[in-house]
């Protein structure tokens, strides 16, 4: 991570050249991310190279969410509290620029570390990601995220597992 910094999106960041190959994610960063931050809909974190600190090469969003206990399988609920809604943190829209392959792991590690840190003050039992497509699913599986048959796009990582990573 010494050549990179992951930090909150600021006014000085150049978002216009970012291209992850998925237009909906490029558009989100260019047009909607700042609004979301302002309205407290999502916190947006960007990855930059120390050598080019304005140019965004990756990003992800974080927001609070909850998952109905009844939607989760026993493999997950065994270690969860028996409340109808389970507090969670959603890591949304994680993406890196096509010219910077290999920084996806840095982005997700930063997101997981941040979730663990935040959850020590505002509890959350799960980290949730929306995995759009087979490639993203394989990527998240590498980090221990679990897919559920009845919630095909969502994947989960218990916070207790994240703490050990
Ligand atoms: C998904 C994405 C972030 C992965 O970024 P990346 O820079 O290619 O990821 P990394 O190279 O750091 O990969 C980390 C690990 O995941 C694995 N991985 C990454 N993509 C994979 C794939 N499609 N299939 C299998 N494994 C994959 C890597 O091999 C690596 O494993 P290793 O450490 O054992 O070598 C990137 O492809 C991307 O931005 N895609 C477009 C946006 C998107 O789909 N985001 C996710 C859903 S919103």
Can you characterise this structure?
It is a single chain. This protein is of the alpha+beta class. The protein has one domain (4-164): Gcn5-related N-acetyltransferase (GNAT) (Aminopeptidase, 3-Layer(aba) Sandwich). The protein has 5 helices and 7 strands. A 7-stranded mixed sheet has the order 1-2-3-4-5-7-6, sandwiched between helices. A hairpin with a 2-residue loop joins strand 2 (43-49) and strand 3 (52-68). The chain starts with a strand and ends with a helix. The model has no long low-confidence stretch (mean pLDDT 94). Bound molecules: coenzyme A (COA). Coenzyme A binds at residues 20-22, 25, 93-96, 101-105, 131-132, 135-136, 138-139, 142.
Please outline what is shown here.
With 165 residues, the chain is of the alpha+beta class. The chain has helices spanning 23-38, 74-77, 104-119, 134-142, 159-164, and strands spanning 4-8, 43-49, 52-68, 85-96, 126-130, 146-148, 151-158. It has a single domain (4-164), classed as Aminopeptidase.
